[in-house]
Specification:
This protein has 149 residues and is α+β, with helices and mostly antiparallel strands. The chain has two helices and eight strands; from the N terminus they run αββββββββα. Strand 4 and strand 5 form a beta hairpin. The radius of gyration is 22 Å and the shape is flat. The protein starts with a helix and ends with a helix.
């Protein structure tokens, strides 16, 4: 019985390693093959949402932010980071920093007030403030429609 458990543990570990490798290769990312996706953190407040986008090494002018309804689209271009070696020969051992075109599309849990969206780029992070859209006059919230259950 111990042999079966050992084999199962080994198989489970191998499967875990395969899944981790697939995720690290970005198999599950929505992006065109020639684009990369920046990492994001999304926070919710009473007023709306704050989105922090990791975009080190990019000039503010290279970033485009669009909001439509519940959708946030962030895109732009990051140059390839290369050392200033002049004409010296360069050998690369590890190159993990994404460069070139990037795009990230996020769906927010609520409609956004596009007139009040702001963005601030500092220390390599793009901070986007997405205020919730105010409901139309006479509109009821979900909890009002469902009653007090």
């Amino acid at each position: 019985m111990a042999g079966v458990k050992d084999e199962f543990d080994k198989l489970s570990e191998q499967l875990g390693d395969m899944v981790e490798e697939m995720l690290s290769r970005n198999f599950f990312r929505y992006a065109k093959p020639d684009t990369w996706r920046p990492n994001v953190n999304v926070y919710e407040t009473a007023a709306g949402f704050l989105v922090c986008v990791d975009l080190a090494g990019i000039e503010r002018e290279q970033i485009d932010v669009q909001v439509k309804g519940r959708w946030l689209l962030i895109r732009g271009t990051r140059p390839k980071p290369l050392p200033d070696t002049g004409t010296a020969e360069l050998c690369v051992h590890v190159m993990e920093i994404d460069s070139g075109r990037f795009a990230r599309k996020l769906q927010m849990p609520a409609v956004i007030d596009t007139e009040r969206v702001t963005a601030d780029y500092r220390n390599g992070y793009l901070w986007i403030t997405l205020p919730r859209d105010k409901p139309a006059a006479g509109a009821r919230t979900r909890s009002e429609r469902e009653g007090n259950r």
